[in-house]
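Workshop exercise sheet. Pairs work together: one partner reads the sequence aloud, the other fills in the structure field after running the prediction. Swap roles for the next sheet.
Pair: D.N. / O.F.
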Amino acid sequence: MVPDIDIYIGRVLDSEKGYVNDPADSGGETNFGITVAVARAFGYFGPMKDMTREQATTIYRTRYWTQPKFDQINAIDRGLAFILFDTGVNMGQSTGVAYLQRCLNVLNLEGSLFPDIAADGGIGAMTIAALNAFVKARGTAGLRILRDMVKHLRGASYITQAENKASQERYEYGWQTRLSDLEPA
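Structure field:
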């Protein structure tokens, strides 16, 4: 059986498509969705256009899966883990995690299900405990709602980006399309 992360990486790599150096793109020069800064931080020093899919896969696994602890989220809910992984690649790992934390805080019935947690963008014991308590209280239906809420925050962020910088409007339809395709593997 293929591990979930291999499936997730394949899906994101297919979305990212390879080398891009569009001056209007606020992400700058990327290959497979990986910025120059991230590539350099993870040991790739060649021209970005020459980065291979295999090199990108290694960076994805370390930077966008293991470091942010999405493997721990995957053990609780595969769909949520994939959404956070894809959001991390597209917007930064802490962004999706902060969305998750914000959603959990407004779904905790004023702290009666579990205490509020800091929306700090990092997965730690408190975030995992809150997620587990939420799942215990709300089950599968609750997870579907939680996944949708995280996706909605991401979608609203894209709209804000395009509203604040007109040059980003050219990407809006694609961003929203990618977001609508984020279903559990």
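Discussion prompt: The longest strand covers residues 19-20. What would you look at next?
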